[in-house]
Amino acid sequence: MPDDDEDVIDAEVVDGSLKRCPECESYDVVRGKSAALLLVIVLSVYGAGLAVDQLPLAFLVIVVTLVIYYVLPAFQCRDCGSRFD
Ligand SMILES: [Zn+2]
Question: What is the CA(19)–ligand 1 centre distance, in A?
Fold first, then answer.
């Protein structure tokens, strides 16, 4: 059944990492978010809060950081700088 095989290949291309910029239709797109970086920031702020005895302030900064991380679209176009999901 050659037709079925072609369908499977097409589906894989569509579901792949070929993201496309909605603004300029470029394929030159990078993931702008890093969970590891977020973890480092959160731990650093927590450590700084402990060091200066300002844990409530540290938690506030962490919450704001998490909200910004959540709101920020995951992908950024390297051609026009547009961010999108
Ligand atoms: Zn673009």
Answer: 11
pTM: 0.61
- Residues 15-69 pLDDT 10s: 455 789 999 999 999 987 888 989 999 999 999 999 999 999 999 999 999 999 9
- Residue 69 CA, ligand 1 centroid: distance in Å: 21
Q: Is-contact 32 82, C-beta < 8 A? A: no
> Cα(22) to centroid of ligand 1, in Å?
7
Angle at 17 between CA 11 and CA 18, to 5 degrees: 80
Q: Give the number of residues written for the chain.
A: 85
